[in-house]
Amino acid sequence: MPQPAITGHGVFTPPEVITNDELVVAFNAYAERWNAEHAAEIAAGTAEPKGPSSSEFIVNASGIEQRFVMDKDGVLDPARMYPRLPARPDEAPGIMAEMGLDAAQKALAMAGRTGADVDLVICAASNHERAYPAIAIEIQQLLGAGGFAFDMNVACSSATFGIQAASDMIRAGSAKAALVICPEICSGHLEWRDRDCHFIFGDVATAVLIEPAEAAQGPRFDIVSTRCATQFSNNIRNNNGFLRRTHDQMEDRRDMQFMQNGRKVFKEVLPLVSAHIAAHLQAEGWGAEDLKRLWLHQANKTMNDFIGKKVLGRTPDPGEQPNILQDYANTSSAGSIIAFSLHSGDMAAGDKGVICSFGAGYSVGSVLVERQ
User: Fold this and answer.
1) Which residues carry out catalysis?
2) Is the dihedral of CA 106, 109, 115, 121 positive or negative?
3) What helix, strand, coil percent values describe the chain, rounded to 5?
4) Model confidence over 342-363: pLDDT tens digits?
5) From CA 314, how far away is CA 347, in angstroms rounded?
6) 92 C-beta neighbours (distance < 10 Å), count
7) What is the value of pTM for the model shown?
8) H/E element holding 13?
9) Residue 169 and residue 171: Cα distance in Å, rounded?
10) pLDDT tens digits, one per residue of 103-132
């Protein structure tokens, strides 16, 4: 069977940035506005006042310093607090397709390929802007690719699950060149009015091109092994969906946006992910000493520091476990791929690493790669 390899990768970064300081000013103005409007309920004890946020709180809680977004003004409007993304006519490319196209073209250029060389497109993301037609098929058309395309959603693990699916198809011979694209407009499903999570997410798109190793035209990362696992949990959830209207639930409700029980997520996900990576390494005969780099899901710096230390058996050296969330924030499925794309160019032939993503589901996926 063909040996699948990552031959190209790319990142689309939105043009607009929101710093912690800017975000805090907007949130605190919203909180003051809300408290004033609900002063009677607060005085009567039937409502709790909204407390202020701060840049120090955000950095201490997450390690995040800024985030890129597709629309800044809407998010920072205290009377709105969510992006303003105008609807597009059906004949125009969707916003996710445009983002994914940019990242895909960068991955193809790195690999010395064009869209015509691609016969599989997977759009792997935590949220899709419509139910159908598939975003992946739209990207396929924009690229001029052949073959087939489909969307998939495993929340923050979508990238690694997509890489496993594409790699298996390369091995089976049902695809010869596959793009796994993760366009994430996380700003659209984040509740910017919730102090506990208003700072978490940013927008981005990533792409990796996977081909048989023998077809590579330049340096590559052989995909030695993939492993995915899921375990049901309600601790990260979003109840929005197409059945919402049938339940007569069209009002603005908190559970229709991103929600999580952070304490339980920390307690349950960290050992799950650490054990998953350790078992995957052991199954392939790899030891912690064999790893040059860990490219982890970018959700929280404390989580990544814990996982890195658990996997390596020591505190990771600078550069061994690169974090990008200080600049990008949590970008759901795209985070581990941003880390890989920005921090893999210095690796030499024979160097090994792990791409790992994890999140809602619970879900966790790991990809063992070796530079060639």
Assistant:
1) 156
2) negative
3) 40, 25, 40
4) 999 999 999 999 999 999 999 9
5) 21
6) 10
7) 0.96
8) none
9) 5
10) 999 999 999 999 999 999 999 999 999 999
